[in-house]
Amino acid sequence: MVSTVKDDPGTRWSEQSALSGPVNQLQDPEISLLLGSKDLDSKMWFSGLDSFATYADKNPLAILFFILGLGIGIWKYTQTLPHASTLESRSENEDQKTYPPIQGLPDFDWETTEPLKLRPFKPKYHLTMALSNLDPSDLIQMDKTYKDRLALRSSLLQKYPDVVIGINTEADPRIYAAIRELYVFVVETYLPTRYPQMFRLTPQPSDANNKTETGSRTMLESIVTGTKIPLNFEESEPGSRTGRKELEILGTLVDEDFLLLLPERSPTHPSEQYILQAYTTHFPAGFDTREKLGLRLASIHTPVPGYKEKLERSMDRFFARVVVGQFVQRVNWSVTTDSELFAAFGGVHGAGGEGEKGLSRADLDVDSTVLRCERQTLHRLPQTKGLVFAFHTYTYPIQMIKDEGLGEDLAVAIDGLKEGNVPGMHWYKRGAIWGEAVKEFLRS
Questions:
Q1: Closest-CA residue to 139 (of 262, 282, 254, 4)
Q2: Helix (H) or strand (E) holding 42
Q3: Average pLDDT of the residues in 157-180
Q4: Is 295 helix (H, G, I), strand (E, B) or coil?
Q5: Domain range for residue 221?
Q6: Does residue 76 belong to any structural domain of this protein?
Q7: Of 121, 225, 242, 128, the residue nearest 176 (C-alpha)
Q8: Choice among 33-47, 205-219, 294-308, 324-338 with the minimum mean pLDDT
Q9: What DSSP element (H or E) covers 165?
């Protein structure tokens, strides 16, 4: 992923001091003469100018390089100074307590909207951050697969409740506050504002089982499914119970997986180490999220080849510096020989070493083999300051890729997994197992 880490203001000012300090201490008498002196005779001054002109005439290249070097030095110096508007913007973001406004889509028709068509593969695979800015209004995507995906998510919640939902067992009230903040934003603000044809807020009359101080309780109504969802739960309910319920609703209300990370409470790393504290992941790509709970960002990515050398420091810095109101996204890809979206127990990443036999073209089930992509997003919660890492999973049959005329491009990209800056990625993505068979099909 290409690092978009911003310059450290502290580093900028230290560079400025390092540059400006010696300049203020220059006391060379010859330089003082060049700068002028009250006692300097006019003849000496013009004599000095004549000497300089003679030297310049005999050594034009030396003077040219001197001027060029001086210009570059001045330019570099000015680049270390933080622009006033940049400092003002950072200050405003740090103090921001609410999400940015969301733009609605009043005419959006989810039943006719095709899924995003992502084709992120390239001739060589380089492990980089590869981030781009994201409009906050585009945070959650909807398309014609929505209703079927929700049904699958609900069934997975029933079958694997402790796999798809997780909250760190540590008694940290920050976790439940972060879950609540995300829940309220999605349910009360984002969905009814962005997709008014799919969701609406409706007040419910109070009764014996639904009492509030105002006499009614506002609910989010899904026009698609007919379900009604509370915006808030009774405060008397235990935090862990309420937090889990909110994650369950999020995981079955939108086709999006959410992971909540909070800064580690540590005197040695007070701001740059983030811990996975809660999640709702129904479509994990070859990993059991339970095993990642409570781990630092670096430990979560331990299985990823090249992560420590290529990304660990820049990722830690970037996560620590994401400001409120900043939304970013990236896309990854792999190929899987099983079209199942739920892949918590392997089959996508990690395995595929020398002990496994590669598939032949005859053994390849083309109908079940897909290009699997994740559209990943990251933003900071305005009040609790937690980070929300979310991803939407898309799958495309390799037959579709071939029909689009991109078969050769994908085949080249498969070879490119072992030709980039981390050749081990070819094994990590199990390219050694499916690679030759898939390439043969794509080129047939």
A1: 254
A2: helix 42-58
A3: 91
A4: coil
A5: 110-442
A6: no
A7: 242
A8: 33-47
A9: strand 165-167
What's the domain count of the chain? 1
List the beta bridge partners of residue 397. 370
Mode of pairing for the β-strands spanning 327-336 and 199-205: unpaired
Percentage of residues in the chain having pLDDT higher than 90: 62
pLDDT on residue 125: 95
Whether 18 is covered by a domain: the verdict is no
CA separation (Å) from 341 to 182, 284, 432?
24, 8, 22
Phi, psi of 213 (to 5 degrees): -65, -30
Stated length of the chain = 444
3-state secondary structure of 209: coil
Q: Answer yes or no: is pLDDT of 63 > 90.
A: no
Determine contact, residues 416/125, Cβ cutoff 8 Å: yes
What CA–CA distance (Å, rounded) separates 34 from 50? 13
Give the pLDDT of residue 271.
56
Residue 34 falls within a domain, yes or no?
A: no
First to last CA, the chain: 32
Distance CA 11, CA 3 (A): 17
Confidence of residue 96 (pLDDT cuts 50, 70, 90): confident
**How high is the pLDDT of residue 242?**
87
Task: Specify if 8 maps to a domain.
Answer: no
Q: Which two tokens stand for residue 191?
A: 């969905």
The whole-number pLDDT of residue 172 equals 81
The residues, ordered by sequence, that sit 6+ positions from 384 with a Cβ below 8 Å of its Cβ are: 174, 177, 178, 181, 262
Strand-pair partners of 394 = 373
Q: How far apart are CA 6 and CA 368, in angstroms?
A: 42
